[in-house]
Design a protein that fits this description.
Length: 303
């Protein structure tokens, strides 16, 4: 219930599940177990959409929310976008005074929020993004990782240092570009044109498409850690930007041409830096000198 009466019981239930989700000791057979939660959330566009959906909020209604949300609200107001529940949900900003529709959504999310608060992080996969052809259908605004106790020891790492060293501000850049698209979509539904919005943010959209190309994986396609590092390093250094800009949708994530670029880059870099690639996969680490060598190989491929 919304007052949290069943929350403690569900947290106890989730606790047992989370403890089973881990990477196992090699002496006991190795491998890992991933906890996957499948949840059907109410669709605000089709379910109970008539309940106070046309009410418009003021900027002061968001005073108690985070600075990030208040900054996004300010951007919407400058773009003359009405602060209606429908528009807010399109870009995943919480409604300050929930209606019956929003209460239903919060109730559906209650146990999901409990589970998230107990975990060291989560990857949020969205059905709508999957329908758009994104693979994996990752929602960057809802995905995160927290570094817990023991995360820097050799036997207990929150993530691979090699990967962390190449992603940099990936999540921030990716989400910033997604915000541009979301805000543009809202404007298109409320104004005659959003051309100026897109035009002023072409670079961010280009960066988003480059990262989508780098992380795209087909079903059952497996990549080694070294391969992920190579592709993300290439994307973060801007090598995919020009590829995407020059070829547009023909070279987008999920296309045959896009796949050829990724496979060609991986084959070249792996041949040129075989010892470094092997080291990444064995140690999960990447030194500054090794990263520089990878960058030189990537640059050589795109010359």
């Amino acid at each position: 219930d919304l007052s949290g009466g069943s929350s403690s019981e569900m947290r106890g239930f989730f606790s047992g599940l989370i403890q089973r989700a881990a990477r196992f000791n090699a002496k006991r057979g190795g491998g890992s177990v991933t906890l996957i939660l499948l949840s059907t959330l109410p669709n605000p566009d089709t379910e109970n959409a008539s309940d106070d959906e046309e009410s418009t909020f003021e900027e002061s209604d968001f005073d108690t929310m985070s600075e990030k949300i208040k900054m996004r609200i300010s951007m919407l107001l400058k773009a003359n976008v009405p602060l209606t529940p429908t528009n807010l949900r399109k870009i995943q900003i919480p409604v300050p005074r929930p209606s019956a529709t929003e209460d239903a959504r919060r109730l559906a999310n209650q146990h999901v929020d409990d589970l998230i608060s107990m975990s060291d992080g989560q990857i949020w996969l969205d059905d709508e993004l999957a329908k758009q052809g994104r693979s994996p259908p990752l929602d960057p605004s809802r995905s995160m990782t927290r570094v817990g106790i023991g995360a820097d020891t050799l036997t207990c790492r929150a993530d691979a240092p090699a990967l962390r060293s190449v992603v940099g501000s990936l999540r921030f850049e990716f989400q910033q570009a997604m915000d541009v698209i979301d805000n543009t979509n809202v404007r298109q539904s409320t104004t005659a044109s959003a051309t100026s919005v897109v035009g002023n943010n072409t670079k961010q959209v280009q960066r988003r498409d480059a990262f989508l190309l780098a992380i795209h994986q087909e079903t059952n396609e497996v990549r080694k850690l070294s391969q992920e590092c190579i592709l993300l390093l290439a994307a973060s250094r801007g090598y995919f930007d020009e590829v995407v800009l020059a070829n547009g949708k023909e070279m987008a994530a999920g296309t045959l041409a896009g796949r050829d670029v990724l496979e060609g880059l991986l084959e070249y870099v792996e041949n040129e830096t075989s010892e470094i690639v092997q080291s990444i996969d064995e140690t999960l680490d990447l030194s500054v000198d090794e990263r520089n060598v990878l960058e030189e190989a990537i640059a050589a491929y795109f010359k």
